[in-house]
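tmp note - cystathionine gamma-lyase
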Amino acid sequence: MKLTNTYRTALTVSRRLHKPSLSTTARNLSSSDRPKHHAPTSFATQCATLYHPSPKANRGLAPPIYFGSTFTLDDADHGARLHDKKEAAFTDGDGFVYSRWGSPTNEACARQIAALEGVHENGGTMLFGSGMSGITSALMSVLKAGDHAVFPYTVYGGTHEFLKEFAVHWGVEIDFIDGAGKQGPEAYRAAFRDNTKVVYCETPANPTCRITDLRGVGRVVDEYFGTRENNPNRPWVMVDGTFATPYHQRSLDIPGVDVSIHSCTKYLGGHSDILAGSVSSNSADFCHGLAKVQKLITAPLNPMDSYLLMRGIRTLDVRMQRHGENALKVAQMLEDHPLVDKTFYPGLQSHPDNTGDDQCLVADAFRSGRDYAEDASTMPQTYGGMIAFIVKGEGDIALERAKRVCEGLRVVNLAVSLGSVESLVEHPASMTHAMIPREDRLAGGLDDGLIRISVGIERASDLVEDLKSSLDRVMESETQERVA
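out:
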C-alpha cells in the first residue's frame, strides 16, 4: 500500500515522539536537570507567567501562605502516582497535586493541631472550612443507610439540625440520651445496638457545661463491642471538645476514643475572624475515609484561614489561662446574684460534676495537655471560659427575662460563637438552639432562662460589673412595673 505524503509525515512524527530511548531518558532526568521553561519575551506571556522568589526566600521565620490551586509535576509518572494514591491526612515526599486534595499551608496548620492533640505517627488531623463541616465530614465518612448512632441531648444545635434534617433522611437511625455525669456511660450502653457505628460525645457540653465521663464511655464501648484491635467494626467514638480545647482535654489520650473534633473558629483561632474546624484521629483507616469525604464533598480549610489559625494557636496557652481566671470571678458573682437560679461552671463547687473525690469528672476533664506538674506550683488550675446560668422564672417569664439581661450588657457583646479574646453572650433558647424542639431542649437541660457567656480576656472587674449591672437593672425594672 502506498502512503500519502501527509500520512508518511504524521507517522514519522509519531515515531519520533514515542521513541523508547527518548521517553526513558526523560524519565531518568532529575527535576533539576530537566530543560527549563523559556524566559518569556512577549508581553502577553510575561503577564501570564508565574514568577517565584529566589530559593533563599524560604528562610522566613513564619510559614508562607501558599495560595496555588494546582502544583507543577516532575513528569507524567509523578502525576500518575499522585492521582493513584489513597487519600491520607498528610502528604508524602511526592508533594501535592491539587488544593482540593490538600495544600502546604493547610497541612502545616493541621500538623500543629495534631501535635497539640497528641496524634500518633499513623494518624493525622484534617482541617475544614468550619466546625460544622468537620463534624458532618466525620459522620459522613463512617455512616451509611441502616447504621445507628448515639448522641447526647445537649449536642450543639447545628449537629442536631444535621442529624434531623439530613442523616435520618439518608436512612441513619439516631438515638438521643442524657450522657452527662457519672451515669452517662450506662445511658450510652443502654442505647447500643448491633448496628451502632457512632458513639458521639460533646464535653463540656454546649451550652450547659456538663461533663461526659469519656473514660467510662470508652470502657462500655469496649465491653459491649470489643476493642478496635479485636473488632474493626466497633463503633467510632467521637468527641467534640471545642469548649475544653487540647489545652485542657486531649481526647485521643483516653482509651476507647477514636476521633477528636474542634470548632477552631472558637478558642484555637481565638479572634472572631475565621471559620475553621479540625478532625483528628490515630486511625489511618478513619483518616483515609475522612479525606475521601473532604476531597469529594466538603473542602479543606483555605490557605489564608489556615495561616490565621496557626497564628491564633501560638497564643492559645496564655489565652486559655486568662479566660479561666476571668471566668471563675464572673461565675462566683453569678452564683451569688439574687436573680440567678443556677450557675454552671466547672470551677465552682456547685457544678453537678464537680464531686471533689477520686472520681471527679471535672478534675479528669480539665487536665492540661502541657507539663502541668511543672506549672502547678506557679499557675492555678483553670476551667475554661464558658459559663451557663439560668435566671429565675418559668416558661415565657424566664425567656423574656434572659433576653433582657443579654440585651442590657454594655461590655459583653451580644453575639453567637465563643472562644474569642472579647466576651460574648447569647440566649440559646432563642438563638443557637432555637431549631431544637422545646421538649428536647428541656430534656438536655437547656432551660428557657439559660444564658451562655464566653468570657474573654478583658479586665475581670469590668466583666463582673457589666453582668451584675444588667441583672440589677432587670430586677429594678420588674419591681417598678409591679408597683405601677
